[in-house]
Amino acid sequence: MKKLRPIMLAGTGSDVGKSMLVTGICRLLKNRGYTPAPFKAQNMSLNSFATPDGLEIGRAQAVQAEACGIPCSSDMNPVLLKPSSLNKSQVILHGKPIGDQTAREYFLGNNKENLFHEAIKAFQRLEARHQPVVMEGAGSISELNLKHRDIVNMRMAKAANACVYLVADIDKGGVFGSVYGTIALLEDWEKALLKGIIINKFRGDATLFESGRKQLEELTGYPVLGVIPYAQDIYIEEEDSVALQKKKFSRESGKVNVVVVLLKYLSNYTDFNALEQAPGIHLYYSRNSEDLEAADIIIIPGTKNTIEDLLELRKSGLAQTIVKAHKQGKKIIGICGGFQMLGESVSDPRAVEGDTPDIPGLGILPVRTTMAREKITVQKTFTYKNYPDPCRGYEIHMGTTTFDVASPLNKTDDTYEGYLLNENCWGTYMHGIFDNPVVVNDLIKDRNGEAVHFDYTSYKEENYNKLSRLMEKHLNMDRILKDISAE
């Protein structure tokens, strides 16, 4: 089979829909019989995922791999930045932490050249196994003050010999200026890699943009290969920084109201995507005591800094609200860092998270946590409570939780996991636990007397295919395949 050049979707800016389009192209190519794989050299996200071999990557690439129908790997996202405090991020290389850096140290330091070479190696390994690789850029490709240190956009495209397609968000307005200006600022070698333009998030009748399409082509000299509708009826998990702003932040009558405590260093909020889509459930985020009091179920989510967020809960008064809600019999759940907070204490003798060596927990669960330098990243199969249904999830944490008397929530092949206080309170390190129908059904069965019967995995598959059909209809994929087949 003839080797295909990689496809790269680059952007005129952030939040133009690159991740979703990459996901759609991945599923489209899979459905056409190709063996695609996603790749993003550097990702900044607090939503991460554990690979089958126990490494950590950005959640977006795990979603895109799922759309390809393949297991995810660290080669799909060799560099991951996870913000851990103000202006500081944990740097993860090939799935393992290599240290913490400030934004200034990372973007102005010399080590990015080493990271760039490591990213190229990861890409080459991926390309040897998959055809074609579908690459994703980050932000704008015309950030003049940063591009000489860039390891994810045009320098990476050049190293991979990729065909680049510029994605613009027409819903934001100013699409002519953003496209024309972006291309005008490219160097000649960058323009040579660029093959076309994709207009994303178009509302209404696309034929009304036909004259605009022709004008863009005349102005830039590049073909517009697609005008993609704003697909509000298609659900695909999104990256965190902007997507979190689109969540719901207040209760709704007539449904089971589930509130996720909006922590300062909230991470892996994708844990709750299944609950957002499940019938009969209304999930929202809040750091307001009244919103927590109004909910049927309170969830304390994962966090990149358990101690800092625990201190903030006490300072804001939310800690007292949660403890009071527990005493009143309200259902309280802790996931990962939230599990740690529900305990009696959190200790950090090695200063893994900061300068606070020890802090009392909320005192709801009889467990104690000690932070450790080594990060645990592992996929797990387990059973939940006493249900026989097989479940799947993954752990990503840097602490060990102990207790005097075990009361496990989950059972894995070789051990027990989590802590079950009673039907109204439990904690777990298992991310993705709500992706399992048995857990969602158990969560709300006593609220309305009937099961939910919501299969999140099937729901995602259905939406991957809906997105693929949308791309087939509105994107000139035959032209893109011709581009990547050319010598």
For this entry, give a set of tags.
single chain, 487 residues, alpha/beta, 17 helices, globular
Instruction: Tell me the major beta sheet.
Output: 6 strands, parallel
N→C terminal distance: 14 Å
User: What is the global morphology?
Assistant: globular
Beta content: 25-35%
Overall pLDDT, averaged? Answer: 91
- Find the count of extended strands (DSSP E, 2+ residues): 26
So how many helices?
Answer: 17
* Class per helix and strand makeup: alpha/beta
Strand order of the largest sheet: 2-9-1-10-11-12
Give the % helix.
25-40%
Poorly predicted ranges: none
CA-atom Rg in angstroms? 23 Å
What does this molecule look like?
It is a single chain. By secondary structure, the protein is α/β, with parallel strands linked by helices. The protein is 33% helix and 29% strand. The chain is built from 17 helices and 26 strands. A 6-stranded parallel beta sheet has the order 2-9-1-10-11-12, sandwiched between helices. β11 (194-202), α8 and β12 form a beta-alpha-beta unit. It is globular.
Describe this structure in a few short sentences.
With 487 residues, the chain is an alpha/beta fold.
Helix and strand layout, with pairings?
Elements: E1 7-11, H1 18-31, E2 37-39, E3 42-44, E4 48-50, E5 56-58, H2 59-68, E6 79-85, E7 88-93, E8 96-102, H3 103-108, H4 112-127, E9 133-136, H5 154-160, E10 163-169, H6 175-184, H7 188-193, E11 194-202, H8 210-220, E12 224-229, H9 240-243, E13 256-261, E14 266-267, H10 273-277, E15 281-286, H11 289-294, E16 297-300, E17 302-303, H12 306-316, H13 318-327, E18 331-335, H14 337-341, E19 345-347, E20 358-360, E21 367-384, E22 390-403, E23 410-412, E24 416-417, E25 419-422, E26 425-428, H15 437-448, H16 456-474, H17 477-485
Parallel strand pairs: 1-9, 1-10, 2-9, 3-6, 10-11, 11-12, 13-15, 13-16, 16-18, 18-26, 19-21
Antiparallel strand pairs: 4-5, 6-7, 7-8, 14-17, 19-20, 21-22, 21-23, 23-24, 25-26
Helix pairs in contact: 1-2, 1-16
